[in-house]
Fold each of these.
Amino acid sequence: MKKTLIGLLESLEIQGNEDIDITGIQLDSRKIKDGDLFVAVSGHESDGHEFIHSAIENGAVAIIGEKKLKEILSVPYIQVCDSRKALSILANHFYDLPHHKHKMIGITGTNGKTTTSYLLHHILQHNGKTVARLGTVEYVINGDKRESSLTTPDAILLQQMLHESEDEYVVMEVSSHGIDQYRVHGPMFDYALFTNLSHEHLDYHKDLENYYRTKKKLFRCLKNEGKGLVGTYGSWGERLYEELAEELIPSISFGQSSGGESIYLKAYQTVPNVNLVFDDNGKEQVIQMKIQGEHNVYNAIGSYICAREIGLSPNEVIEALETFEGVPGRFETVEIPNGARAFIDYAHTPDGLQYALQTAKECTEQSLYHILGFRAKRDCSKRETMVEISQNLSDYVFLTLDDLNETEKEKMLAELRELSKPYQKIVVLDDRTEAIAHVLSLLRKGDGMIITGKGPENYTEEYRYKTRNDKETILKILEESGFEGFKTSL
Ligand SMILES: CC(=O)N[C@H]1[C@@H](OP(=O)(O)OP(=O)(O)OC[C@H]2O[C@@H](n3ccc(=O)[nH]c3=O)[C@H](O)[C@@H]2O)O[C@H](CO)[C@@H](O)[C@@H]1O[C@H](C)C(=O)N[C@@H](C)C(=O)N[C@H](CCC(=O)O)C(=O)O
Ligand SMILES: Nc1ncnc2c1ncn2[C@@H]1O[C@H](COP(=O)(O)OP(=O)(O)OP(=O)(O)O)[C@@H](O)[C@H]1O
């Protein structure tokens, strides 16, 4: 790709005569190549403006920043009000407004983004459409899988992938960080889907009101003909739906009750599998899925409504939903030959944990064992509530390590011990894989073990078992114990 600086600046409405070629845009001075434009942002950890010289040394031919510099640079410097916003606009233009090529579906909410994006991907693909999917687990473009760096990639990577993608549809998760940092910006979505909102990321947003307002901004990124799809099974969704109506942003709701919607849930069952009965424009429909849990009732109906809005028939959507196998690390099940079960789930918020444990409890006839930890340097204010939920819904609780995020192990263990103090049945174990081995040795017919927090994510710490993640650990221990014929849900 090649664009002129002045051509790019026109999109920012800044005058100038810097007639030089720009061959790439970078946010990180370490990634700069000859001919790139470097955008300096005032970050949360460091200040991008401090890396301007290093960017120039690495080959940057122009710099955009939001601070007045004390010196004159050897390359043009353009000062803007907000570097991240400018970056979003520039990246969009650099890659020729690639959202126009696709039907774009943005999914936001505290929980259920990944699951809903997988459901929609599956429904559309099952019906012969080509689909890109961007989110926490991976980025899939033109059928190729790439490692995901952030749930919502930065504006440069996002626009680059949208440009590269030849897919008709793009289903992407939009995090509140992504919205706040203008990784998405401007009218780029055909559909914006809100799943729910609950306690999460308060280290970043400070309170739920700010968190909500940030999520709501996604609905300002709808294209002219775009539509909002709002889960109203929680009070924040109800509020959002009302506010969008007041602001004349076309949207439809999905939830438990009929508030005049054309599609609404009539009844459902959550275990052994999700079964839904709902009304679609006066006709009763039934879906029998392979996945479990009340939360997946809402994820299924949200994806159903989106697929119907896109133009698929009820049968086309239902047939696809009934063949959906599940999402890696989202209530993934391992059937142990002695009649016990293990569940791996990515729940890392109080609300998600409530749903995950409730589902595990419903799937377990005897005792339920819960193994959980907390990622260090992430919203600590949710930890006490999560421990309380675990204490209430499981019979035995084991607190162990999650991603330490460069925190001292002893410091984290002390925090876990403090959290466990009020509860007698909570045990703190420092090796996640040993905690799994210990609980596996206790499981009898009818018992369940649920491990939450990491889903399919790989360990960042060294443990006794040299496995990469919770699922691998379970399978390795079962193999070593001589169990044969165990079945996994994915
Ligand atoms: C808290 C947060 O959101 N941080 C994001 C933010 O980083 P930042 O503002 O703190 O950047 P910084 O590290 O202070 O550095 C400032 C600038 O200096 C630049 N720099 C830095 C060093 C250097 O040598 N040269 C250089 O140019 C950096 O590239 C950056 O542009 O902007 C960066 C560039 O876009 C992101 O990579 C970074 O995500 C970090 C890695 C992160 O962990 N983010 C998480 C919290 C996040 O965004 N998660 C959400 C999902 C959450 C969820 O729903 O679970 C996501 O969408 O992934
Ligand atoms: N609709 C929902 N409501 C509440 N909890 C949910 C819902 N869907 C999933 N969960 C719970 O949240 C966990 C994470 O689900 P999922 O990955 O789909 O959410 P997410 O919004 O993508 O989260 P993240 O952005 O952190 O990856 C699941 O493992 C489950 O425990």
Amino acid sequence: MQRPSPTARATADGPGEVFDYVVVGGGTAGSVIASRLAEDPDLTVALIEGGPSDVDRPEVLTLRRWQGLLGGELDYDYPTVAQPRGNSLIRHSRARVLGGCSSHNTLISFRPLPSDWEEWVAAGAEGWGAAAMDPYFDRLRNRITPVGEADRNAVARDFVTAAGEALGVPHVEGFNAAPFVEGAGFFDLAYHPETNQRSSASAAYLHPHLAAGDRPGLRLFLETRALRLEVDADGRATGVRVRGADGATAVLGARREVVVCAGAVDTPRLLLLSGIGPREQLDRLGIEVRHDLPGVGENLLDHPESVIVWETDGPIPENSAMDSDAGLFVRRDPASPGPDLMFHFYQVPFTDNPERLGYRRPAHGVSLTPNVPKPRSRGRLYLTSADPDVLPALDFRYFTDPGDHDARTLVDGIRLARKVAATEPLASWLVREVCPGPELNSDEELSAYARRAAHTVYHPAGTCRMGAADDRDAVVDPALRVRGVAGLRVADASVFPTIPAVNPMVCVLMVGERAAELLRQG
Ligand SMILES: Cc1cc2nc3c(=O)[nH]c(=O)nc-3n(C[C@H](O)[C@H](O)[C@H](O)COP(=O)(O)OP(=O)(O)OC[C@H]3O[C@@H](n4cnc5c(N)ncnc54)[C@H](O)[C@@H]3O)c2cc1C
């Protein structure tokens, strides 16, 4: 396959090239947008990606190797600030490679539920309802397919059967076929079952064109970091100041628009470093205010999870797509429009966090990770320095919602997981509950364990939230335009007003498809 074309030829502070569009972040949304814009041969598009190419990198492109990428050289690996009600040691993995997080995630692919989109409309995202958004799913170029037969592990099959028996939820074959509120089954994944290769955003939207050379207007700037957005005296974004791998800087100009797709951490970070954000924070750090926009970095959302681990009666079979191929959705509150508790089933003992609490990893085991589909806690991202190399502070404020809904959800999750584990055919595989352990039973004990052993499902979102054009706390309007700055849009997980009940990657891809259409409309 042809190597990606040129990286930035940055000359110190010299005027750089000018493109119709400059897209910052060749990740999940950015790959879609750049590819779609460049379908028009008359347009020039610069795609700025902080990481290297994923082409010809089997450690990236092989789905089952995902855990090997966490914390490595292709991971920005953000810490969180202290979480008094949760686990302060969670690291937020974010990929630094073409394809972004779709190049190191588990590629579980859920069409967002109708109620997820309707929540966005209620939050001011006019035009983003289910009827308008659903057709974008069918446009996605990724290969989205149920876990292949050969990858369906016997213990995962028995988990699906036991979950149905124990909780009375339906066995779902193909979660994307129709909206659901409950169910257990194998996931749909964006992958090629015959080779275990990723169908990431880059593999689906960029690789074929890099190989065919049929996107003449598209230039990739790899290993190139956007340091600051250039905004002129009239309040218009005119380009992006970048730094190449050799340390040289340049400005890439945008004739039409700049589109920021750097993800829920780096998009607000870049806006803040560019003087677009809450005046009080920018003043304190000595960053010149280009536009006072109070919502930048607010509304930090995530799906928190906890874990129950069982030791198994010997090793379990090896076959799998990526070691967490099946899951379970439950609706505890009949008034909820969608599921209000979700579980991933792992064919491995997932003990990273429990080990810090003194638990030992069993030689063989499986895990269930209950998570909170609609968390009520809201966090915040902010800068502590004007230096672009200082990491932003991520304060998720996990488990701080006044009604204790989020922690309560995990306690219910542990109790339901125990029911499933006690039910055949899963029960025969298991010899003992390793953590939290059968001696922990009260709500208080389970809540304390669930919060201290908490992890993230790696779904940060919401930090440049979309809202009505006159909503002073919204960062972008329903056309994804940054409010108050001309020629600048944001399109990635940061625009989510609320988090979908399901895993969000497909939602991000759909935001990318819609963003490309909005950009073409001008
Ligand atoms: C380990 C893990 C597992 C996950 N599993 C799933 C799953 O199975 N299913 C699911 O639905 N979701 C999953 N997710 C979440 C999902 O992958 C993300 O929500 C989604 O990919 C985010 O897309 P994005 O476009 O917002 O950001 P990203 O895909 O992160 O893209 C941002 C891009 O911008 C680049 N960038 C950042 N800053 C700069 C800068 N200053 N200059 C230049 N480039 C920059 C980055 O290098 C990156 O390529 C997972 C996430 C992780 C981390």
